[in-house]
Design brief:
This protein is an all-alpha fold. The chain contains five helices and no strands. It starts with a helix and ends in an 11-residue tail after the last helix. About 20% of the residues are buried.
Length: about 120
């Protein structure tokens, strides 16, 4: 069973890397027609499910759980990862990015800007 978890994890990780690259190229307006969010809307959930299944299955297998309980744990990991991927949407990510930029601007405008000096 460990081999199945490794294969699922490897396929999920490879797909995630490809999804990130295609999403980045689509946002850079290089390959807009290949945006994975537009072409296959459920791909994000499938990739998250594969990664969650593989990670939870591997961790529970190496922890020495009973094989039946390992499968239950792997399925729970897949469900939790897919739920989280569905819960995190672009608006939430954009809010986090905006907050980070505001924090950087506030820190940049703070008194004492300049190179760090040693005493």
């Amino acid at each position: 069973m460990i081999t199945a978890y490794w294969i699922t994890f490897a396929v999920g990780l490879t797909t995630l890397i490809g999804w990130i690259l295609m999403r980045g190229l689509a946002h850079a307006e290089v390959l807009v027609r290949f945006d994975p969010e537009q072409r296959v809307p459920t791909l994000k959930l499938a990739v998250a499910g594969m990664l969650g299944f593989g990670m939870a299955g591997l961790s529970s297998s190496y922890a020495g759980w009973d094989p039946a309980l390992t499968i239950v744990g792997a399925l729970a990991g897949a469900g939790a990862a897919a739920w989280y991927a569905h819960w995190v949407d672009e608006d939430m990510v954009e809010d986090i990015v905006e907050d980070t930029h505001e924090d950087i601007e506030v820190a940049h405008d703070a008194p004492g800007d300049g190179p760090i000096q040693r005493r």
